[in-house]
Amino acid sequence: MQPKTRRGFLRVAAIVAAAPLGLARVAQAIDPIGRTRPSHLKLSIAAYSYRDFLKGTKDRKPSMDLFEFCNISADMGLDAVELTSYYFPENVKPDYLHKLKQHAFNLGLDISGTSVGNDFCVPAGPPREKQLALVRTWVDNAADLDAPVIRIFAGQKKRDQSEDEAVALTIDGIKASLPYAIEKGVTLALENHGGITATPEQLLRLVNGVNSANFGVNLDTGNFHGADPYGDLAKIAPYAVNVQVKTEISVAGKKKTEADLSREINILREAKYSGYVVLEYEAAEDPMKAIPRHIKTLRSLMG
């Protein structure tokens, strides 16, 4: 697909022309976040970890809301909660956000972040404007929650797009969203989430293309599936502004195995990452049984 307006075409063409010619050259990305002090890690959990309880399944109605999610998190002695956007009421209002923020505060919980399920690979036109508006809406919501960071996606390359076009549109979408995010005091964090962010080289191409304040990587430890996922995590950790930890990891051509959480925490410390480490539980075991065990492990590793 091509941009539908001349203005959109010229904007995307300019970005493509300025982008690196090959992914191999992107190893020379922008400087990492300038952290000089020892790593300081805080423990959070993503509401997505309880998705079947918050959203329900075909056989079971929702049995939890975000207020109860905060209660469970506080019972585990966590520092914070990540309030995944998928589990908010439709057309959420500031009054609801303020009540939820106050509830978390009364429980001693920070709100470490929230998220938006956007797609910046959509070409110019009304659907793209809708995606940009969606991000602005969740920037507003994050600001109302006092959430410092919002997880964003690049999106999925469309059938008739080249990767260069998808990359250019994503860079353009992030750059278009950043002034509003900066105004609201919210950091945008791009997740490694397959597609054009599947490898460190692809992700760094986008990071290099944006190169702006209030922007970094949402590092998901379960989303690199190459020959050396731990090595890939180490390449990206210096650019992370938020970290989501999975309890499983995938090596190319092999089944998922239990993640070496100690190794992952050491990678973050070596990168001098400071901020929230968010458990995002996706494994098959009952989360009510598994999550407290993994929280205990992470707490012992983080100190």
Number of strands: 10
User: What do we call the CATH homologous superfamily?
Assistant: Divalent-metal-dependent TIM barrel enzymes
Beta-strand fraction estimate: 15-25%
CATH architect. name: Alpha-Beta Barrel
> Could you please say which CATH topology applies here?
TIM Barrel
Number of helices: 10
Distance between the termini: 50 Å
Structural class: alpha/beta
Strand arrangement in the largest pleated sheet: 1-2-3-4-5-6-7-10
Architecture overview:
- The structure is a single chain.
- This protein is α/β, with parallel strands linked by helices and 303 residues long.
- It has one domain (51-302): Divalent-metal-dependent TIM barrel enzymes (TIM Barrel, Alpha-Beta Barrel), CATH 3.20.20.
- The protein has helices at 6-18, 51-55, 66-75, 94-106, 126-145, 163-184, 200-210, 229-236, 261-270, 287-302, and strands at residues 41-46, 80-83, 110-115, 149-152, 187-191, 215-220, 240-245, 248-249, 257-258, 275-279.
- The strands form 2 sheets. An 8-stranded parallel barrel has the order 1-2-3-4-5-6-7-10, surrounded by 6 helices. Strands 8-9 form a two-stranded antiparallel sheet.
- α1 crosses α6 and α6 (163-184) packs across α7.
- The longest helix is centred in the middle third of the chain and has 22 residues, at 163-184.
- The chain is globular, with a radius of gyration of 19 Å.
- The chain starts with 5 loop residues before the first helix and ends with a helix.
